[in-house]
């Protein structure tokens, strides 16, 4: 039998704060207002393709938005969501690269070879060049396409860059995380470089500008210079609220009463991002785009709880296949929506945006084979049933195999040591090691001296490698039904077998020393030529600059700290 243990707080204490009394079936604390077609006329049929603004935030936790009961102020996001359609059955991937690759290709990561981890700065790897991307399809439909923000889909060749994958313009970073002001990124001791690019050039002149403001300003400039009579697609991939935790002081001051320092800085970053979205929305209205626009808001994965994020009341965190890692914040705001001001429980996955947006743009999908996404616009706009009934969260054959998994535990058809997860209807199955599995209330609950993240933990008695949950009835994943419903377990394992047969080999090459920024003038950027294959290996060591002081790798120190922290957490499991 499962044993629940609270460290430093009782369950009664949590209830007294109202955190466990949150009604899952009424997730919005902002009242939904049903729109009666008899009271207001439905929006007119599209007379021309709509302008599309896709906003993706980085590491924003499920709890970290006002309408999910957060203590963080997000008035713009709350208003846009309240006036549009909130997606409360919306799924993303647990880490950066997989979510971005599935958004851009409309395919599960097992179908692009990116099913393991992320693309690292020194890997000769990128989004497969044979994939036709979302912006390329929109270009075919006559759209002007622009990207602002974080790419994180590989850059070892110029062919991998955003401007070669369908975007007319690009301002942003190529790697996974950079300093918000200096745009430096360290990928190991002494392996540091500048990472802010304008098109295919290094944007040295933009250093010192806070990225959230810089990106919002660039969106406004794009809108000001473009004609609203011509369709435009802008992909805004904010760096916020990924580490490092940096924000202008005036935003931190708003949260000075928060005892947890990480949470305080994180909250400031979320509110700053919210104001950036406000400025983007204002620009859409100022330059006459708004009335024919569709704004999509999505997070890329769950929040990182030891960096200030919160996924409460969901289980788990970023990097895990528990709901806290894969259930995202999502909403659509548009004057073109037929049934506004409501919450949708239609099942939606990040792969669905590809066919949905291409269809909205009146693009051609007939020549695109093998998409895993569905056109969910009728479900969003009209409240119709979602065409999606299942989601493959992932199958990762390279992730550390679970110690207690076996083919026998998988009825002889699936090795349960392999990390995998799938949802079919109301059922969700996990095998292998799904990742850190605690429930972590918002960090502002107390000022714990030390292990505030150990608040509520779970052990399952004998070591496990299979979990089954009825997500509709048990969205917090507290009641494992794998032993009670072996029939359902077997059915979902068969679905994993089906998907695994369609998987392509994992693309995860070794890091190459030639990628060192010292070979590229001190900046991260393409380092392989067109003739170099993905297995090309350089032999030179990075050059030492006599004129530069060796940079201190603050990010490297943080990574080392979090690795040690995670080891400590796992070794102390109850």
Q: Can you walk me through this structure?
A:
This protein has 574 residues and is α/β, with parallel strands linked by helices. The protein has two domains: 51-388, Alkaline Phosphatase, subunit A (3-Layer(aba) Sandwich); 408-445 and 452-502, Arylsulfatase, C-terminal domain (2-Layer Sandwich). 23% of the residues lie in helices and 15% in strands. The chain has twelve helices and 20 strands. A hairpin with a 5-residue loop joins strand 7 and strand 8. The longest helix is centred in the middle third of the chain and has 26 residues, at 261-286. Mean pLDDT is 86; it is low at 1-44, 444-454, 534-556 and 566-574.
Label this structure with key terms.
four-stranded antiparallel sheet; Arylsulfatase, C-terminal domain; disordered C terminus; alpha/beta; Alkaline Phosphatase, subunit A; 23% helix; globular; 574 residues; ten-stranded mixed sheet
């Amino acid at each position: 039998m499962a044993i629940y243990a609270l460290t430093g707080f009782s369950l009664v204490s949590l209830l007294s704060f109202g955190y466990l009394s949150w009604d899952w079936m009424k997730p919005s604390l902002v009242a939904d207002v049903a729109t009666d077609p008899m009271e207001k006329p439905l929006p007119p049929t599209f007379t021309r393709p709509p302008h599309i603004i896709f906003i993706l935030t980085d590491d924003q936790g499920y709890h970290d938005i006002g309408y999910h009961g957060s203590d963080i102020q997000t008035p713009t996001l709350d208003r846009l969501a309240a006036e549009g359609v909130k997606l409360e059955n919306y799924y993303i991937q647990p880490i950066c690269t997989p979510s971005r690759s599935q958004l851009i290709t409309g395919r599960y990561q097992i179908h692009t070879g990116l099913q393991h981890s992320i693309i690292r700065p020194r890997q000769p790897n990128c989004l497969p060049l044979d994939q036709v991307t979302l912006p390329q399809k929109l270009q075919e439909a006559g759209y002007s396409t622009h990207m602002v923000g974080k790419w994180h889909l590989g850059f070892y060749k110029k062919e991998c860059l955003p401007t070669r994958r369908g975007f007319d313009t690009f301002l942003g970073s190529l790697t996974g995380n950079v300093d918000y002001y200096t745009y430096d990124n360290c990928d190991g001791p002494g392996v540091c470089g500048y990472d802010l690019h304008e098109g295919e050039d290094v944007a040295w002149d933009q250093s010192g500008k806070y990225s959230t403001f810089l990106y919002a300003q660039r969106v406004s400039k794009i809108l000001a210079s473009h004609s609203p009579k011509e369709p435009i697609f802008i992909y805004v991939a904010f760096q916020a609220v990924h580490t490092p935790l940096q924000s202008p002081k005036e935003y931190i001051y708003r949260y000075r009463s928060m005892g947890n320092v990480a949470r305080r800085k994180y909250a400031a970053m979320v509110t700053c991002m919210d104001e950036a979205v406000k400025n983007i929305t204002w620009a859409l209205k100022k330059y006459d785009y708004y009335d024919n626009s569709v704004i999509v808001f999505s997070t890329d994965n769950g929040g990182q709880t030891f960096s200030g994020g919160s996924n409460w009341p969901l289980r788990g965190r970023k990097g895990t296949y528990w709901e806290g890692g894969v259930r995202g914040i999502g909403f659509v705001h548009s004057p073109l929506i037929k049934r506004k001001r409501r919450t949708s429980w239609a099942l939606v996955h990040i792969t669905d945006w590809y066919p949905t947006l291409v269809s909205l743009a009146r693009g051609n999908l007939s020549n695109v084979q093998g998409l895993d996404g569905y056109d969910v616009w009728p479900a969003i706009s009209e409240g119709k049933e979602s065409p999606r009934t299942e989601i493959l969260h992932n199958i990762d054959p390279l992730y550390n195999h679970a110690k207690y998994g076996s083919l026998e535990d998988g009825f002889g058809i699936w090795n349960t040591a392999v990390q995998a997860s799938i949802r079919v209807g109301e059922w969700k199955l996990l095998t292998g090691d799904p990742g850190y599995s605690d429930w972590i209330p918002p960090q502002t609950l107390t000022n714990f001296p030390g292990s505030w993240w150990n608040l509520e933990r779970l052990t399952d008695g004998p070591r496990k490698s299979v979990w089954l949950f009825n997500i509709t009835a048990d969205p917090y994943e507290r009641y494992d039904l794998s032993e009670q419903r072996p029939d359902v377990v077997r059915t979902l394992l068969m679905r994993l077998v089906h998907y695994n047969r369609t998987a392509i080999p994992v693309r995860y090459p070794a890091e190459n020393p030639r990628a060192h920024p010292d070979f590229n003038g001190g900046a991260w950027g393409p380092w392989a030529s067109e003739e170099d294959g993905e297995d090309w290996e350089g032999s030179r060591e990075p050059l030492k600059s006599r004129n530069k002081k060796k940079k201190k790798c603050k990010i490297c120190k943080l990574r080392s700290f979090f690795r040690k922290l995670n080891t400590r957490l796992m070794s102390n499991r109850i």
